[in-house]
Structures are given as C-alpha cells and as structure tokens.
Amino acid sequence: MMSLQRIRKNSTKKIQTLVNKGQGIIFHKKTSRMIEDSIDSDHSVAVAADVMAWLADPKNYEDARIWLDGNELRVGGQYYFQDSFYIYFNKEDFEGELNRLDELDGIKRPVQVEASTLMTKNSNVVYLTDYVKAMKVGKTL
Questions:
Q1: Is residue 5 within 8 Å of 73, Cβ to Cβ?
Q2: Please, how many CA atoms are within 13 Å of residue 7, restricted to the half-sphere of its CB?
Q3: In which domain, by residue range, is 74 found?
Q4: Is residue 90 located within the same domain as residue 75?
Q5: Buried residues in 102-118 as b, exposed as e (16+ CB within 10 A)
Q6: Residues ≥6 apart with Cβ < 8 Å to 86
Q7: How far apart are CA 61 and CA 54, in angstroms?
Q8: Which of 18, 31, 74, 105 can pair with 40 through a Cys bridge, CB separation 3.0 to 4.6 Å?
C-alpha cells in the first residue's frame, strides 16, 4: 500500500535531495483561457534546477504544495489548475508517462540540433522547422 506524505515546503534540503534522486521530471504548465473558461495544459521535460527555481520564486512558494506518493514526487500549486512538476523515481514510470502524454497531445522533449545540419549544401537557406527547434534549445544560427 502506498502512502501519501506531505513534505514541508521549507525543507529545501530534503526537497533538493528527492528532486536529485528523480529519474525524470515532467513540468505541467497551466494556462487559463478566459474567453472559453477553460484551462490549457502544456507538458515539457524539466530538470532539477527548474523545480528548485520555481519553488524559490516567492509567488510560487506561497501556494506551493509538495507531496510524495510512492515513486512520484509532486511539487506544485495547491489546485489542479496551477503549474506543477512531477518527479519520477522509477525510470519505467517516467517513460510510461512520457508515452501517455505523447499519445494525448504531444510533449516537448529537448531537441539537439547542430547548426551545421540546418543548411543545405550549397545554400544559406534555413528551414523554418529546424530554426524553431534550434531556438527552443537556445542555439543561434
């Protein structure tokens, strides 16, 4: 039987230790669409530094809740419509969740693109899709 354990948000050393033990992190970004009165959820792969930076932000820290549930740590707001990180301690659980999210609406995974592969052999034309991929990983052309 799994137990749900709440972790105090001011236990930064414990949180940092748990986040570092994670095999994978998925960030769920929530966006309110006022016109349609709905919530959009965008998913992306994150790293431990993202979790700790999010928690260090005073506006996030105020509403932050940290829950440990078996092989998963959740760091996020207290409501379902607030941003949250899911840290998986089991690689298979992490990969399974990535596959599930891929099937639902796609997940933004880190993309490694070399600038030299973006141009054709005798041209200075850069394909728009390659340019967008490069910009997502912070490379300049």
A1: no
A2: 20
A3: 4-106
A4: yes
A5: eeeeebeeeeebeeeeb
A6: 25, 26, 28, 72, 73, 74, 97
A7: 8
A8: 31
Q: Sort 88 into a burial class: Cβ within 10 Å, 0-12 / 13-18 / 19+.
A: buried
Q: What is the pTM of this model?
A: 0.69
- C-alpha angle with apex 71: 39 to 87, nearest 5 degrees? 45
Strand 38-46: give its sheet, edge to edge.
Answer: 4-7, 64-69, 72-77, 84-88, 24-33, 38-46
Inter-residue contact 141 to 126 (CB < 8 Å): yes
41 or 110, higher pLDDT: 41
Looking at the fold, whether 94 and 25 belong to one and the same domain comes out as yes
Residue 78 exposed, middle or buried by CB count within 10 Å (0-12, 13-18, 19+) = exposed
Share of the chain above pLDDT 70, in %: 67
- The pLDDT tens digits of the residues spanning 60-99 come to 899 899 999 988 999 998 887 788 999 999 999 999 988 8
User: Does 83 share its domain with 118?
Assistant: no
Q: Which amino acid is at 104?
A: L
CA–chain centroid gap for 137, Å, is 14
